[in-house]
Specification:
single chain; alpha/beta; Rossmann fold; 2 domains; five-stranded mixed β-sheet
């Protein structure tokens, strides 16, 4: 029997990331309800950004903090020479490799800024130049710590996030499925996504969300959910990538009496 048979999962990842996660879940017997709560959009002004950064090979490292950063920031690597590339985790590294860009460093364990900072290569960076490719308004920990270690850090914000605008009837359809008992777990891969989901749903949907088990892509997201008043069980994955999310859900399912 498929390990997630009969389980209804609300997949809130932005498009196009929602599709691969849905396929993984459905391959294990789950029913996925795709309801992107956040949109990822490329920022305007690529020529101006490239001009402000100067030649990319003046940096010792270029760090990509997500697959979205790769998707929207590859144009920064155009040219004959490329500095060493670092990826925050395997999904980001895979996106770079698929684009023909070899990755020099992926953390041995963990998939976040803390794991990247723990890599021996970044223990001594005094005098080095580091370019961090990310979205608008990302975490400051990576840059702050690298600067404290003596590096010169520059940001390249290549995309922006916004709460999604669901198609007419989409919210009602999801809330109806919830009311019918078809949705048993909700995914959340960032605190911002969770906030958007809460804003998009109506009063009935918010009430369901607060009680439904939440599959969180890391401890920080689970903590954010608790701060927002989430009352249901929180299933904490090791990271926000699809494999980690599905692994955590399968382990949870083995020890629950839910559908």
């Amino acid at each position: 029997m498929a390990e997630l048979a009969g389980l209804g999962v609300l997949v809130t990842r932005p498009e196009p990331q929602a599709e691969p996660l849905s396929r993984r879940l459905e391959a294990l017997g789950a029913r996925s309800f795709r309801f992107p709560a956040i949109e990822i959009r490329a920022r305007d002004g690529r020529p101006a950004l490239r001009a402000s950064l100067g030649p990319v090979d003046r940096f010792d490292w270029v760090m990509f903090v997500s697959a979205n950063a790769v998707r929207h920031g590859l144009f920064l690597l155009e040219g004959p020479q490329t500095p060493r590339l670092a990826a925050v985790g395997p999904a980001t590294a895979a996106a770079l490799e698929q684009a023909g860009r070899p990755v020099a460093l992926v953390p041995a364990s963990g998939f976040d800024s803390e794991s990247l900072l723990a890599s021996p290569e970044f223990a001594r960076v005094r005098g080095q130049r580091v370019l961090i490719v990310r979205g608008d308004g990302g975490r400051e920990l990576l840059a702050d710590e690298l600067r404290a270690r003596g590096a010169e850090v520059v940001f390249a914000a290549v995309y922006e996030r916004a709460c999604a605008a669901p198609a007419p009837g989409a919210v009602r359809a999801v809330e109806s499925a919830w009311a019918a008992g078809a949705i048993h777990v909700v995914t959340a891969t960032s605190a911002e996504l969770l906030r958007c989901l809460f804003e998009i749903l109506g009063p009935d949907g918010r009430a369901h969300l607060q009680r439904t088990p939440l599959l969180a892509g890391g401890a920080r997201i689970a903590q954010a959910a608790a701060a927002m008043g989430h009352e249901g069980e929180r299933i904490v994955a090791a990271a926000a990538d699809d494999a980690s999310l599905v692994d955590a859900l399968v382990k949870w399912r083995r020890h629950t009496t839910r559908p």
